[in-house]
Every structure is written in structure tokens, then in C-alpha cells.
Amino acid sequence: MSQNKDPVATTSTSTEVLEHFSRGKTFHVARRADALSDTPDGSSIADPDTERKKALTALTAEEEKKLIRRIDWRLIPLLALLYVMKKLDESNVSNARIMNKGTPRAILTQLNISSDEYGMITVLYTVRPPSAVQTEAGMFPGIILQLTYWYRPDEMATRLGWIYVCGSIAGIIGGVFAYAFNGVSGRLGVSGWQWLFIFEGATTIVLSALILFRLPDFPSTTSWLSEREKAFIQARLPPNAPRGAEENFSWGEIVTSLKDKRLWLFTLSWALQTCGGSGVKFYQSTIIANLGFSDIATAQLLNIPMSALAIIIIVTCTWLAGKGSIPIPLFPVAFTVIIVACYGVMTAYPSDVGVYIAMMIGNAVSTAWFPLMWPWRAQTTSRATGSAFAIGFVNSYGQVGDAIGPQMFLDKYEPRYQLPFGFSMGLIALCGWNCAYTWWVTRHTERDTRKHKLARLEAKKRNNTVLDDVSDHDLERAGR
Known about the structure:
Blueprint lengths: L7 E4 L4 E4 L6 E6 L18 H7 L4 H36 L10 H5 L3 H5 L10 H4 L5 H12 L2 H31 L8 H23 L12 H9 L15 H9 L1 H22 L1 H7 L5 H6 L2 H19 L7 H19 L3 H27 L5 H14 L2 H5 L13 H24 L1 H19 L2 E3 L6 H5 L3
Antiparallel strand pairs: 1-2, 2-3, 3-4
Helix pairs in contact: 1-9, 2-6, 2-7, 2-8, 6-17, 7-8, 7-14, 7-16, 10-17, 11-16, 11-17, 11-19, 14-16, 15-16, 15-19
């Protein structure tokens, strides 16, 4: 094992060996933009992976940097825009609940439903008719899956961070729109909440046309990449990553995914997190209004600091995770501890200001939980069908909490909802324990992924590329 605190490179005839300081991990590297065609003894490379290795050396470190930046600008803004539309849709149902509250223009009054019945609307965001399943239901897992065709798992945290940041900005925009349309309620005979739905729905329809024609598909089918760049992008992905040239469907990959206990552990974490956090988020505007800080319209604006704090947390934590020095699972586990503490304050503390601050921190951290979980999940998926199934499975069944969580916040618990906060705190605590156990189960793959990230960063400094890649050792140890 190397005694140095930095990776050390030793030169051979055509490749180098990069010895990482952590437990003596070694990686084989080659000079970029050099023809990798011979082994150290001068014979031809008989490795079946030769073409991949040649593609990896095709671009210099600077060329790779420019290429990834170009992909970022082509892909991430459009995916972020999709997510903004989704989050505006979700924030509508929360904001609309208190618009023009106590007047004939209130949504509960006009629909002639109770607060508890309104809470059942959240079920429609989780259990959908077939027509909705064909459209929005697959949108977000589709975003995650598409990222796996373009980026390595250790690169996804930063990209997902920016997508989630835009989602938090949507929370700010939604609060401002709700405030604005609350003031024009009654114009043309249309209530404020109806103006809100009409405006944001029409905006979604217009923007969807732009995204349909501009969003790239796979690297191999993209017109704005050269053949050399296409080969490089696909060669740099880990062996278990999906690729556009694969068969469309494989039952074997689905069976393998179902046998993998990590699928069920991640799904359980998602279900516990959404169940414990979705109710608090859904009733956020109502809880703020019940605290009596100000009038209803201004209470909408008090949602904005929570979204702003979420942006700060997401940017900071995904940036740190992208460096490769801190294990990604540490963030979700730590987040659950913070959320439990905040929900504890909301359960027991009598101060309105204290409840608001605790809700602001708890909901912000809860939002940041997801962009740190998805890269971890992507590390342990396999191939096109397996990845699509595993990501969709977790996203679908994990969302059962979105249907259950809001149903805990019944009218009889107003105005402080202390018992629902207590239940939410318990569910998040279970989520934290399950995340910690999942970290133990995936520890080998997660550790190797970080080591590979650090080795690549070190190799780039010398204009080298790492030829080795990460194997799913946790799946291999499971005997599958």
C-alpha cells in the first residue's frame, strides 16, 4: 500500500498504474489522445474491451471538459424545465387551498368539500388513471434514466442538484403566483385558484412543445456529437450502465432486479421518506396560515424562505458529493436526523416562530434528501431494462407515502397538527435507520465508485484516463 496521501503514478511502456492511497487501490491509466494499440511487451492487445479503451483515450482532458459542459447545456436546462412544471403542478394544490380563505371564492367553498376531502386530492398525484400513467407518471423516472445514458453515477449528484434547485425555484414562483392571483380573484368571473390553474396549465402545454423537439435522446443517436465523441461518452460509462444500442426489453434483467434486496431497501426508504414528509409539505401553506403571522395572501410569501433554504442546502451538498471525498449515503442519513429533530420541535414546541423555523429547515432538508439518493440508487442498477425497471419501481412504489402522508393531517388536529407531526417524525426515523442499513449493504460498490472518481480526477491532471471501471461487487457477493 502506498504511504503517500496522494495517488502515485508509475510509468510502463504504454500505460501507467495509478495507486490510490485508500487501501492500496490501483487503477490502470493511459495517456489521452495517444493510440492505445500495444501492450507493454509490444504485442497487440487481445482484450475484448480494446475498443472501449481506445475510445477512452480519444479525447484530451480539456476536450472532455468542453464536451461534458456542452452536454450539460443541451440536456440539464430542458430536464430542469420539465421538473419545474411538475413542481408547479404540485405546489398549486397546496397554495390553492388557502387562497381567498374565508370568502365565497375559496376553493373549499366553491367545490363544497371539507378540508379532509380536499386532502384526498393528493391520492390523484400517486394513484392515477391509465391516461395519466402514460404521460406524467413516467416523467421523473424518465429523467433519472436518461441521465444514466449520459453521465456516470458519481457525476449525477451535481446535475440532479441543479434540477432540484430549479424545482425549489418553482416553489418560490408558485408562492408568488398564488399571491398575485389571490389579488385578482373575481376578474372575468374567475376565482384566484382557477386563474392559478389556468395560467400554469397553459404554460406547461406551450413549453412541452419546445422540450419535445429539443431534448436529446441517446448519445449514439444525437446529431450534434461527432462519432468520436459518441464513442467516448458511451465508453466512459460504467459496465452496468444502460446504452441506447441494447435490446428494448429483457425479462431476465427484471427478474435479476427483483431478486436484488437492494431494490426493496431503496423502495422502503422512499416510501418512509415520502410518507413522513409529504403531509408536512402538502399542508405547509395551511400550517403557516394557522400560525397567525399575517393575512392569508402574505402567508403565501412565507413559503419562499423554505424554498430558498432548500436551494442553498442542495447546491452545497451536491457540490460536496460531486468531489468524491464524502460518501453519498452519509448525506441522506444525516438529513433524516435533522428532519427528526425539526419535527420534534414542531410536535412539542409552543412558539409559532419556533414551529415556522423548524418547518423551514425540515422541509428544506427533506427536499435535499432526494437528489442525494438518486445517484446512490443509480450506482446499483444494471443495463437498460434493469435500470429502467429499478428506477421506475422505486419511484412508483416509493411514492405510496404521497398518498398516505397527507391523510394524517385531519381537521381535528388543527391548528398545530401535533399528532401528525409525531407520526411523521417516527416514519422519518425509520427511514434513517433503513438508509444506514442500505449503506452497509452497498458499501463496497459505493466505496469503489468514490475511489474511481478520485482516480479519474487525479489522472486528468496528467492528461491521462483511467482504463479500469467499477464492478458491482455487492451484487457479486450476493451470488447473483
